[in-house]
Amino acid sequence: MRDGQDLMREIVALVAKDLTLLLRDRGGFFFTFIFPLVFAVFFGTIFSGSGAESRKLPIAVVDEDSSADSRAVIAQLDTVAEFDTQGMSRGAAVEAVRLGRRVAYVAFPKGFGEARRRMFYGRGPEIELGFDPSRKAEAGMIQGLLARHLSAQVGQLLSNRSSLRSWIHETEVSVDSSATGGGRRGALRRFLGELDRFTGEVADSTPGAAGDGGGWQPVSFKNVDVARVRSGPRNAYQVSFPQGIVWGIFSCAFGFGLSLVHERTRGTLVRLRIAPISRGKILAAKATACLVAIVGIATLLLSFGALVFGVRATSPALLAIAVLSAAIAFVGLMMLFSVLGKTEATVSGLGRAAMLLMSMAGGGMVPLFLMPHWMQTVGSFTPVRWTILALEGAIWRDFTLSQMALPCGILLAIGVGTFAAGLKVFRWTEG
Amino acid sequence: MTVPATQSHRDTMLRLSDVRKSYGKTVAVDGLSLQIAAGEVFGLLGPNGAGKSTTVALAVGLLEADRGTVEIAGAGGPADPAVRAKLGVAPQALALYEDLSGAENLRFFGTLQGMAGSALAERVRWALEFVGLTARARDRVSAYSGGMKRRLNLAVAVVHDPPLLLLDEPTVGVDPQSRNAIFGNIETLRRQGRTILYTTHYMEEAERLCNRVGIIDQGTLLALDTVERLIAAHGGRSALVLDENGTERRIETEDPAAEVAKLARRGSLPRFRLEQPDLEAVFLNLTGRHLRD
Ligand SMILES: Nc1ncnc2c1ncn2[C@@H]1O[C@H](COP(=O)(O)OP(=O)(O)OP(=O)(O)O)[C@@H](O)[C@H]1O
Ligand SMILES: [Mg+2]
Q1: A259: alpha, beta or left? (left if phi > 0; alpha if psi -120 to 50)
Q2: Residue A387 lies in a domain
Q3: Chain B residues touching A272 at Cβ < 8 A
Q4: Is residue A42 part of a domain?
């Protein structure tokens, strides 16, 4: 008599066989992994504009000072390779950050230019930096880049000793020859002499262009929290990856359904049935293999998306629930695929047609929010739609557990329903 | 070749009792009964569409009989997985995973039979050696020739060393080399005491391998006995074929030696050959000469 360990070993053997066959079937591998990946990357890239731009930090720039100084600094910011700057009003900038369209805003308040001219005494000019608290890392980077570029300007001026000194000397000459009163003239001369000496000292102590000005801060930052409302995907890949994953899951389920037909027409199902294991176990193993493959493919694609394109879930636990629910739905569909026809040709043709239609209606090709209303209604009858919603819920829609319950519940119901329907029609023998 | 035609119940490895199976209006197997004794090689012969494969499918539980019972080794019917564990089957239609290698197919099906570890590895090695596929064990089955696939189909049937083998036309479509190799395999299995149900269209295979033969047509057994007794009963008479200056003359006779002696006594013995009844004659006499299908 066989014990539980034997049965487990048999199921594992059946699952391993199916997964091996999947990996060895080049066409199947292409449609379950390569194609979805290409789809996700291709459409993600198209909708993000050019790839180079997508890596820049989008920041909003608010110029409330409108002085020559603030304009000069902004012009300088525009040349920073890491930034994608856009000038706007304070209100628009705050809104852009709140909606996540811009990572941060940089505001130059009134009086910036004036403060900047008081270079070596009093409080330095202040720049306001607004960002979502969850994006501290990016804000820190922006602040660092700003500080570097602004002090580089000062450093340049200071390090260019000869030009500064010649400016001082020219000024001394013009002060001497002017009609300025004796007391003020003396004070000015003293100041310029001091400045001349200071310039020499500072320039000597800061050989690099990006010095910190000898302990003096050329600019200070005021940080403002802008709590973000998450109303849309943060980047196009967060839309294209769920779509790509649905293609992968769909192809996988379809491939397994086809493999059941294949086993029947090629006679291997006969061998499985003669073996001393029950029919229930044969199908359970097929379903398990399909489930494992789907979860594996989704995990691979999601990992790729996370590592290369920053497609990260706000909640990994909810993402796991979404993937598992989708996998169960599509295992049910696998069973239904396998009874679409008697021959592989019929099943393959009908299956592909179903895949195309469901993907189209369910948002697998065009994002759901871009589709006409009637099509969205049709789409809500497809598992594609609910899979995408569940994945997006975990990736950028910030679903709560109870919001996740709807798509996942529907997916589970689809899985159970289609599996039962497929099982009812399934034939073990040909003819 | 001297297994008695009747066996005690205990030693019966396969018993079909009055089984019937129809596909719609086609009656594929019509009230067939037979018993195969332990250690016996039983040949089931019949023209295309006679019901051989259907009989095998009923015996191993792939089909459920409309009527009648199947019992394996006195342990019950093939619906019980524990009973199926005693079976090794080589289906007429090759049943192999083309994208797995020969060794992988054997390992997979061996695992389903409850084998594991070194015992499994040992049996896989043995089975590959048995059918001469050791050198190609790692190649995908899709790269095998027809003969190699047939041999692997047999190897999968025996990898778990079952006591009862059902081989449905195990030599169909192979070259003489593979065919001889498969004959050799079956003779080895017979020497090892395996019970074998063997279906074929090739009469000389049955004459060479089988203790007893059943001839089936249109789902019913027409005759069932040892080869010698079948020939004696249904082979018809021997014939002397005389070559008299280019024209042939047949003389049918019960006693060819006496006939030759009679001709010799007349003093004019021409060139002649002797046609003795064989299993093919039995087969054609029983099933007729008209085409099937
Ligand atoms: N799945 C099926 N559906 C309908 N009829 C079938 C089916 N399988 C077999 N038959 C019919 O049952 C009869 C017996 O077929 P079976 O395959 O058992 O014959 P066989 O003796 O194995 O023939 P062959 O020598 O050609 O393999 C034939 O008339 C065949 O047409
Ligand atoms: Mg047949």
Answers
A1: alpha
A2: yes
A3: 112
A4: yes
**Do residues A40 and A244 touch, judged by C-beta distance below 8 A?**
yes
pLDDT attached to residue A53: 42
Q: Quick one: pLDDT at residue A200?
A: 65
Ligand 1 centroid–CA A279 distance in Å is 24
Residues B193 and B268 in one domain: no
How many domains is chain B partitioned into structurally? 2
Judge whether B126 lies within some domain.
Answer: yes
Backbone dihedral angles phi then psi of residue A351, each to the nearest 5 degrees: -60, -45
CB B63 within 8 A of CB B54: yes
Q: Are residues B53 and B170 in the same domain?
A: yes
- Whether residue B292 lies inside any domain: the answer is no
Q: How far apart are CA A251 and CA A263, in angstroms?
A: 18
Residue B160 lies in a domain: yes
Task: Give chain A's largest Cα–Cα span.
Answer: 118
CA A431 to ligand 1: nearest atom? 1
DSSP per-residue codes, B115-128: --HHHHHHHHHHHH
Residue contacts between A and B (CB atoms, under 8 Å): 68
Average pLDDT score over residue span A203-225: 56
Quote the domain boundaries for residue A290: 2-49+236-424
**Average of per-residue pLDDT across B287-293:** 74
CA dist., res. A116 & res. A124, Å (int): 6
Q: What sign for the dihedral angle of Cα A302, A303, A308, A310?
A: positive
- Minimum distance, in Å, between the CA of residue B247 and any CA atom of chain A: 53
| Cβ atoms A350, A340 nearer than 8 A | yes
- Residue A50, pLDDT > 50, answer no
B169 and B267 co-located in one domain: no
pTM of the model: 0.74
Residue B101: which of A19, A30, A262, A17 has the closest Cα? A17
